[in-house]
From TrEMBL:
SMART domains: PlsC. Transmembrane segments: none annotated. The gene is plsB. Its main location: membrane. It is found in: Cell membrane. Belongs to the GPAT/DAPAT family. It is an enzyme of class 2 (transferase). InterPro entries: GPAT/DHAPAT, GPAT/DHAPAT_C, GPAT/DHAPAT_LPLAT, GPAT_PlsB, Plipid/glycerol_acylTrfase. GO terms for biological process: CDP-diacylglycerol biosynthetic process; fatty acid metabolic process. This is Glycerol-3-phosphate acyltransferase. It is a peripheral membrane protein. Pathway: Phospholipid metabolism; CDP-diacylglycerol biosynthesis; CDP-diacylglycerol from sn-glycerol 3-phosphate: step 1/3; Lipid metabolism. It holds the Pfam family GPAT_C.
Length: 821
């Protein structure tokens, strides 16, 4: 017999208030905007398993969020008397064995109405609820009993779970399904419509559960022992014992030690502890954390093994990314960490937070390499999410470093061995307004020895916690499906057999392509902040100073350029205007103000002038093409559009390789054309017949164009310097390594003589990349003795540089190369 509705409502309200005296929730997706609800259609919430506690939590959260109530009746004849239903009901009594859950009658009634009334549509909002978010630990009765896992909890177990984990409850609302769309094709067969909707909802709940809880974890000791027993490690043990004449038992013990050194020991207790500590830390040192496009990660995490590949600017990176993922309902990844971080106290905490440790190099240790490869294979084949940095180390200049192929190659080879679980890469850009290690980076760029990680160094870092480091942005890029990359590299890869040691001939090309896509995806997700755009404009001035109103106006205009022709859909721009950004930078202590009656002067002084190059380099790639076009008008009043396209097109492949620009070389001319049109629209260029013209000298437009040209000019000077050094020696006189060394020395000398505040100007790796690109494009070749030769094409490139570089810069480069002779 049903209770009187008013009395029933009163009892439920009382129970809900009692429950929330204890329960605390973290909720995701609970807004009309996030759900995309249609106000003209009724809403019905769907919970997976019948549970009074879940019903009470649902009602509480929809009330808090101002969503359509869950207790209100749906305007449907035979549907539930309220706006929610459970997908499954339990069978079996309190103490009897539970059977497989069966579909509820409310579910069947709703489908029946949907089938009978074609005009009816209901928005079905799936709601997933987790009492604690602990991965399952095999052989751990405590975790099995008191953690919300893949198993369905009984009533007594649920009561204990609420008591233990009720203050760490996670609720996720998901975008609605249309009842009309799901049952439309089965209006003549209600049974099939039931099965269709149940399957869609069941799949949805399973995918969300996997994304939130992660796959089931094996006990760490079992995992370590399992690694030693794999065929690949057995073969490596046997080979090592034979080669080094060591008893197999000793080699096996060494392999076990390696596995124990590597393997993570993820603990939900540690993760929750770190969440509390990091929440306090971020609130203390940052003004906020902006998270953008995280729906990409949420979607791919449901059916794939995810590899998060962030840029590496700070030790904070991996802590911040794990924190953001956990706070947004995703299981933190297993993180590849350098063995140097396996310090006392810190190492065990990181290991329990998901870190697995790797040595910097293990090329000469095949046994260690095999154990590490097998560990990675276990991670991927079981569907764990993983995080590693493709750059290898932290960027000291603020630029994206050239990717290192090691971890990517391991990932691809693991997938070739077993591709039942798809692997998806998610590029992540982490942007700091003030990087914590900024000052130490300046010292290292000046030649100071890199400080080793230690407890004492950590203690010194803790003293910085009284400082403010501005805001942080965590931007997720577009997903990269590994199978699609392999399809393009080698379409028949699925038909071939691979073992742990096999490296097909086409693998390096596929890995290089993947590395470029990852780096390009990271740069495409850049977060432009006030520090970066202020640094970009101020560093383009000769004296590193500018009138405040003029600086604010230029920043507004250059930010508008990025809005007129967005670099990528995943790029984000700052709020506010130039005046706000100047005040913000001043408050952060990065710029100085000199009061003056005609208008205050904003400038850069001392070490800040060099430090700000770091933040400029974060966003330099966004302005690379318009700045390159602007450079062409440094020495030319006008050029034919075709000439602008061709000259820019010659340089573009080198800029793309260095800055990881996301437009393919094949699309370069079309993109250049679009930028020309935008610059004309903004008044920086004009059209006279078939020629593109620069503004008149002394005008505001010419000031903007000249400022824009300086955003990339030092990169072009570096290219010209390397070519000048090569031409000075002549063909067949110098090797690639010698050219790299000589170019670096010349650039460093030029930096000192002409006061260039840009440490990357004499970065040896950038010269190495440029020389390699010249070889790849056939501009220079290597003879049998390893010496470089070139054709007249190089002379043409040098002549084209005369159209780009000013007379002063060409003379400066010539002077430096002559002095270095």
């Amino acid at each position: 017999m049903r209770l009187f509705p008013g009395l029933r409502s009163l009892i439920l309200t009382f129970l809900r208030k009692m429950l929330f005296l204890w329960v605390r929730t973290d909720v995701s997706g609970n807004s009309r905007e996030a759900l995309g609800l249609d106000p003209q259609k009724p809403v019905c919430y769907v919970l997976q398993y019948s549970s009074l506690s879940s019903r009470l939590v649902l009602e509480q959260e929809v009330r808090r969020a101002g969503l359509p109530g869950a207790e209100a009746a749906l305007p449907i004849t035979s549907a539930p008397p309220h706006s929610f239903f459970f997908l499954y009901r339990r069978t079996g009594g309190m103490f009897r064995r539970r059977q497989t859950p069966v579909l509820t009658q409310q579910f069947r009634d709703l489908v029946s109405d949907g089938v009978s009334h074609p005009e009816l549509d209901v928005q079905l909002v799936p709601v997933s609820l987790f009492w604690g978010r602990s991965p399952d630990k095999e052989k751990s009765l405590f975790k099995l009993l008191l953690s919300d896992t893949w198993s369905v909890a009984g009533r007594l177990q649920k009561l204990l779970i609420i008591l233990v984990h009720g203050r760490n409850t996670y609720v996720q609302f998901n975008r609605p399904l249309s009842l009309h769309q799901v049952v439309e094709e089965y209006r003549d067969n209600e049974a099939r419509a039931n099965r269709k909707l149940a399957r869609v909802l069941r799949t949805h709940f399973r995918r969300v559960r996997q994304a939130v809880l992660g796959p089931d974890l094996s006990h760490r000791r079992t995992l370590v022992e399992g690694l030693v027993r794999t065929q690949a490690v057995k073969d490596a043990i046997r080979e090592t014992a034979r080669r080094d004449d060591i008893p197999p038992e000793k080699v096996r013990a060494k392999a076990r030690k390696y596995a124990d050194e590597i393997a993570a020991s993820m603990s939900i207790v540690t993760i929750r502890f770190l969440e509390v500590v990091l929440s306090w830390l971020w609130n203390r040192i940052y003004n906020g954390i902006a998270v953008n496009n995280i729906t990409v990660a949420k979607e791919v995490a449901q059916d794939n093994a995810v590899v998060y590949v962030p840029c590496h600017r700070s030790h904070i990176d991996y802590l911040l990314l794990s924190y953001v993922l956990y706070r947004n309902g995703l299981m933190p990844p297993h993180i590849a960490a350098g063995i140097n971080l396996n310090m006392p106290i810190v190492g065990p905490i990181l290991r329990r937070g998901g870190a697995f440790f790797m040595r910097r190099s293990f090329r000469d240790n095949p046994l260690y390499a095999t154990v590490f490869n097998e560990y990675m294979h276990v991670m991927f084949s079981r569907g764990y999410s993983v995080e590693y940095f493709v750059e290898g180390g932290r960027s000291r200049t603020g630029r994206m470093l050239q990717p290192r192929p090691g971890m990517l190659s391991m990932t691809v080879r693991s997938f070739l061995r077993d591709h039942r679980k798809p692997i998806v890469f998610v590029p992540v850009y982490i942007g700091y307004e003030k990087v914590m290690e900024g000052r130490s980076y300046l010292g290292e760029l000046r030649g100071k020895k890199k400080q080793k990680e230690s407890i004492f160094a950590l203690a010194k870092t803790l003293r910085k916690l009284t400082n403010s480091f501005g805001r942080v942005a965590v931007n997720f890029g577009d997903a990269i499906h590994l199978a699609e990359v392999l399809d393009q590299a080698h379409p028949s890869w699925r038909q071939e057999a691979y073992d742990s040691e096999y490296r097909p001939d086409w693998l390096p090309v596929a890995v290089d392509d993947l590395a470029n896509r990852v780096a390009t995806g990271i740069n495409a997700s850049v977060a432009v902040n006030p520090i970066g755009i202020t640094a970009t404009v101020l560093l383009s001035t000769e004296r590193l100073a500018m009138d405040e109103s003029q600086l604010a106006r230029l920043m507004d205009q250059f930010a508008d350029l990025l809005r007129r022709f967005p670099y990528a859909t995943t790029t984000t721009l700052p709020e506010g205007n130039g005046k706000d950004w100047i005040a913000y930078c001043e408050n952060m202590g990065l710029v100085t103000r000199q009061a003056q009656k005609l208008g205050d002067i904003i400038g850069l002084e001392g070490s800040n002038a060099i430090l700000m190059t770091y933040y400029r380099n974060n966003i330099q790639h966004l302005f690379a093409l318009p700045s390159l076009i602007a450079c062409l008008f440094e020495n030319n009043r006008s050029l034919r559009r075709e000439k602008v396209r061709s000259l820019s097109g010659v340089v573009y492949p080198f800029l793309r390789s260095e800055l990881f620009l996301h437009h393919p070389v094949a699309d370069a001319e079309a993109v250049i054309d679009q930028w020309i049109d935008v610059l004309i629209e903004q008044g920086l260029l004009s059209v006279d017949g078939d020629r593109i013209c620069r503004p008149e000298e002394g005008t505001d437009a010419m000031l903007r164009l000249r400022t824009l040209s300086r955003f990339i000019i030092q990169t072009l000077e570096r290219y010209h310097l390397a070519i000048a050094v090569l031409r000075k020696y002549g063909p067949g006189k110098i090797s690639a390594s010698e050219l790299e060394e000589q170019s670096t020395l010349m650039a460093e000398r030029m930096s000192i003589l002409f006061g260039l505040n840009a440490p990357e100007f004499f970065d040896k790796t950038l010269f190495r990349n440029f020389i390699a690109k010249l070889q790849e494009n056939g501009v220079i070749t290597t003879d049998d003795h390893g010496l470089l030769s070139y054709t007249e094409g190089l002379d043409e490139v040098a002549e084209d540089a005369d159209l780009v570089l000013s007379v002063e810069k060409r003379q400066a480069i010539q002077q430096v190369t002559m002095l270095g002779a």
